[in-house]
Design goal:
Layout (H helix, E strand, L loop, with lengths): L2 H4 L1 H28 L2 H9 L5 H11 L7 H48 L1 H21 L6 H11 L4 H24 L6 H23 L1
Length: 214
């Protein structure tokens, strides 16, 4: 049996989700990148007054549909509210986005995926996500486009909800506070920040996985 045949469901769903993420980026990516710089995002957040933090978190949730530069928004929240409060708003937004992507895909997208690829074809994807999907969830939160696509795939392939939530927290929370701290310090995004935003979630998941197994 060929690789494509064994993993047809995962390949089909991945292709559709990536296409759905890339097409809006091609259409609106440049305009959104120009608008939602760190300073531009802070000005946009400030326009909502006392509800600015919630508006910033809402931008991170909107990343489900639009190519919002999420790490810049996190930095803007840190610039506007400081590391602690800005990090909390950023973490709330990115975790909410992941949960929404997972839930919509699992309970609404799953029937469509079964019709397109067949229930049998999705089983191999379910095994792959059960074995190693949490690493992808935890390590992808700082990467453009991929985080919500991976959260959708986790939902489609029925990753255990508790595992998904724990991996999402391991990835989303440290990334949010890291980039909020960068914004609060008034720095641009250094290369070490990107490295830490991958390494820290993976290390946290190593610890969380041991706890989950117990």
């Amino acid at each position: 049996m060929s690789f494509f045949t064994r993993h047809r469901g995962l390949l089909v769903s991945s292709t559709l989700l990536l296409a759905g993420a890339i097409i809006p980026w091609i259409i609106w990516g440049d305009a959104l990148d120009a608008t939602f710089t760190v300073e531009g995002s802070r000005a946009w957040i400030a326009g909502f007054g006392a509800a600015g933090g919630l508006a910033g978190a809402g931008l991170l949730v909107a990343d489900l549909l639009l190519p919002i530069p999420s790490t810049l928004v996190m930095s803007a929240l840190g610039l506007a509210y400081g590391t602690l409060i800005g990090g909390l708003y950023a973490a709330a937004g990115t975790v909410a986005a992941g949960l929404l992507a997972y839930g919509l895909s699992r309970w609404l997208g799953r029937p469509l995926a079964v019709r397109l690829a067949g229930a049998d074809a999705l089983e191999s994807g379910e095994k792959l996500f059960a074995d190693g999907g949490a690493w992808l969830v935890a390590g992808s939160r700082c990467v453009p486009i991929l985080p919500e696509a991976i959260a959708c795939l986790a939902g489609l392939h029925r990753m255990p909800f508790r595992t998904f939530v724990l991996a999402l927290l391991c990835g989303g929370v440290p990334t949010s506070f890291l980039f909020a701290a960068i914004g609060a310090l008034g720095q641009t995004e250094p290369t070490w920040a990107l490295g830490l935003s991958v390494v820290l979630p993976v290390l946290l998941w190593l610890v969380a996985r041991r706890w989950l197994r117990r």
